[in-house]
Amino acid sequence: MSFSLFSSFLRRERKAEPMQKTPSRQRPAVALDNLQLDLPFADAPGIAAPASQTPAPLLGEIAPGANAAPPPYAPDGTRLRRLVLGQQTLDYRLKRSSRRTIGFMIDGTGLAITAPRWVTLADIESAIADKQKWIFKKLAEWQTRVEQRALPRIDWKDGAQFPYLGRSISVSLGSARRALHFDEQSGVLSLALPALADPQQIKDRVQGWLQTEAKRIFGDRLVVYAHKLGVEFRAYGLSSAATRWGSCSSDGKIRLNWRLIHFPLSIIDYVVAHELAHLREMNHSPRFWQTVESIFPEFREARHTLKHHPPELLPAL
Question: I want to staple 161 with a disulfide (CB 3.0 to 4.6 A). Which of 3, 46, 220, 258 is the partner?
């Protein structure tokens, strides 16, 4: 059965591998020591959206307590507040803090709002009503992700398929070779395992091969784009980060998420160019994006692809 690149939820992965040292002929052109910038996943949990400066009129109201069902509780036991907006009912968590604005965060557990202690509940509800279109859209997107997690995972056996560099390749068991072998033309990864090998053993072999390929290919692409930009990175390593595709520190150390190996080479090149550009501009200013474009002109298309294909939709390895 054909396997889609974006078919199932991201599991917790192995620890990041040690950095691979590379000789350095010059120091990165940055002013701050050990500053790190990340390329985050789109809509990662924990990223709050700003509230509107001018609250709109309240479109709903708290459901009457006498006849309405009591608000539910969050998994951690926190009681949720309930707000009726037109024909829709919204449950949310409210936390007070010393922040100066109202913050919205949506993840797999629903809507969480952090508000200043001095802001009234009526003002908070007005802000919710003002952003209700965005809120319900993001909640629907998370619901879709939850449903996708329930899709069948890879059945690790002879003929199992998984994505590699943007194409679907298959596993072949019972190889006469002593070592693992990949035939690029046929797209077959042959494992020296018996036909009835344990699924976990097959999965571990495949993941190990993918991470080895990631280390090799990412290293090659870093050298190519570092030469184009005229910078030197001090070291690089693989990451299993749950919230970012890559990171770059001001001392020239780069980490790239090994799961990028599932994507086409153009996507890998974008992330590589992105991180190397931070050795020139340790920010995300217009000058930074101009630097990225100077070595990877197609960065907008690649950035769009990553934004709309979050890690939850990668194969569960």
Answer: 3
